[in-house]
Design a protein that fits this description.
The protein has 3 helices and 25 strands. It is α/β, with parallel strands linked by helices and 244 residues long.
Amino acid sequence: MHGLRHSGRRIVPSLAVSCILGAMSTGGVSAPRSYRVLARRAVSSAIGSMWEKACLAGVVEHGHPRAKRFASFGEGSMLSFPPGTIFNEEWISIGEKVMVGPRVSMSVGMVPKQPIAGNDAILRVGDRCVIGQGSYMVAHTGLEMGNDVQTGPYVYITDQNHGYEDPELPIGIQWPVNKGVTIGSGTWIGTGAIILPGTSIGQNVVVGAGSVVTGNIPDRCVVVGAPARVVRRYIPGEGWNRAG
C-alpha cells in the first residue's frame, strides 16, 4: 500500500497492485471495492505523471534536431508536445520566442516531400507569436504572420481553397485556388476563427471567436461574424467607435 500513497513517484507498485486486482477478478475472486478504487486512482495518477513528463520531454526548442529541419527556428521558440501534423518544414520559418501549442498542424504543400518552387519560406511566423492548441496553418503560395500575433485554440488559416468553376465536376477534384494571406503584427485571433485565402488583416486587429475572415481588414479594428465585418474601429483623436 506504500506504493498507492506515493503513486505519482512509485509507478511500478501501483501498476502491480492493479494487475493483481485484475487477476483476482479474472480468477473469480472479487477484490474489495475500496481496493479496486484505490488501484484505479493509483494507475490514473501514474499515467498522469508519465504524460506530464512526456509532454515536457517532447518539447522541440531552438537547437533541437527537429528544429533544424525548419527554414529558421528562432531562439526561445518552442513546439509543444504532442505536435500536430507538421511537414515540409524547410519552407516554414519560425521567429524568436514563439510558442506553438500542442496538436498544432503546420504544413506547406499537399503532402510531405512535395517539390516546392523557390528557396524562400512560404509559411512565416514572426517573433513572440502564440499559436493556440489544435490550430492549423496550411500554406501553398504564401502565409505570413507578423510579430506579437496570438491565436486562441482551433484556429484555421489557409491560403488555398477548392475551385468550383466547373459545375459538372465534383468540387473536391477541381484545381484549387491559391491566394496569399497576411496577418498584421499585434493581432489577436479568437477561438475557432477561420482565415480564408486572399485575406489581409491589418495591425492590432481583434478577430472574434468563430469568425470567418476574408478580404482586406484595416488596422486597429474589431471584426466578428461569418463573413466577418468590422464592428468597432479606432479613430485617432476620437478613440474606439462603433462601425456603421
